Amino acid sequence: MTDAEQLLWSRLRRKQLLGVQFYRQKPLAGFIVDFYSAAASLVIELDGSQHFEAGHQANDKERDQQLAAMGLLVLRFDNKQVLQELDEVMQVIFDTVERQIPPCPPFSKGGKT
Length: 113
Hints:
With 113 residues, the protein is of the alpha+beta class. The protein has helices at 3-12, 54-69, 79-84, 86-100, and strands at 23-28, 31-37, 42-47, 73-78.
């Protein structure tokens, strides 16, 4: 893992974020995604400088479209963002997870209403 991946993983692992399980280096649709939460239908990708090259951007776009077709939302951050603006990155992830996971319905006892 890169330094940025290690840093982000230290904040996502062990259900630290809203009690949601994340996996790292998860195989999905023939790809290996950096971080994945099934509960939030969320993929998080961290990009190094090579991802700013035209060829990589086209591949990333195609990959994101295939993941979106599976009902997954893809968040992309560059390594520098994670290393220098971790709190802001975590806030974006927190807000996204909160939106992606529907609120639990209120508890109701069995019986007729």
